[in-house]
Amino acid sequence: MISVAVPDTEPRAAGGRRIIVMIGAPGAGKGTQAERLAEALGLPRISTGELFRAALRDGGPLEGKVRRYVERGVLVPDDLVIDIVGRRLAEADAAEGAILDGFPRTRAQAVALDEMLERARARVTAALYVEVAPELLLERLTGRRICSLDEGHVYHVTSRPPRLPGICDIDGAELYQRDDDAPATVRSRLETQLPPMYEVIDHYCEADVLFGVRGDASAEEVTADLLHALASAARSR
Predict the structure, then answer these.
(1) Residue 37 to residue 59: CA distance in whole angstroms
(2) Which residues are catalytic?
(3) Interatomic CA distance for residues 102 and 112, integer angstroms
(4) Domains and CATH numbers, the chain
(5) What does the mean pLDDT of the chain come to?
(6) Residue 8 pLDDT level (bands cut at 50, 70, 90)
């Protein structure tokens, strides 16, 4: 359990619903913080990646639509993403709100999300930006090592090293660096993904719901800063 004090006041839409958007570059720790906030606030964490995987796994009317894009390795179109997110937000556990992790990724998606929420008489109540310098992002992403037997066993050469260099603590298998984590690949990803992220940041700054925190502290400190940012958002309304 997270032992961070939760603010008594949170930013809420007119109907009392909290829609919180998490923003951060790859390696910023955004996903970890989304999980921690979800636990602290009692809201579901909604990840578009997980929604896509669930659609492929569970079948149903969305499976074919998602599969045609995922199998080709291309981005799922905005209208389909919005449809999938909207369906998830309509579920019972999101009645009080949700934390969106990995969406929106572009200004166009942010605008579409605003329009969808407006139809549901809701809005984004806070956009939380976990800011990490590009050089630290590079260090975090290129330092990741994966177990060759179980890809769920993940290490990092500096922040979470194995007991023996290059060897998984759990099953003794060799650790390897994914091609996606090679320095040249990571730099290319950041060059591609950062500009649209900055446009999303601008969008929520213009809407006066953006709150940024430094992401180079410990996970506990970042969570506390995010919760304090949410309290500040409530006081500013």
Answers:
(1) 30
(2) 30, 105, 144, 178, 189
(3) 15
(4) 18-133+193-236 (3.40.50.300)
(5) 89
(6) very low
